[in-house]
Amino acid sequence: MALFKKRTVGKPGEWYYCLVHQKVEEGPECPAKDRFGPYGSREEAQHAMETAQERNLEWDTDPKWHDKQPESGD
User: Which domain of life is it from (predicted)?
Assistant: First the structure.
């Protein structure tokens, strides 16, 4: 028997989007490594993937974060 049991972290009233099950869940159902959140409402959690895509696009096109490509010495 293990001395320490791994628990999921979260509490009721917090909403998450589970990446494994591709569903919205309230509180600690799946491990943190498999979910986005917490979100303030069920509706926010339902749009988690869209929010992630929008943020990725913003970061990918942010000129402050673009590393210069190494120049070819050929």
Answer: Bacteria
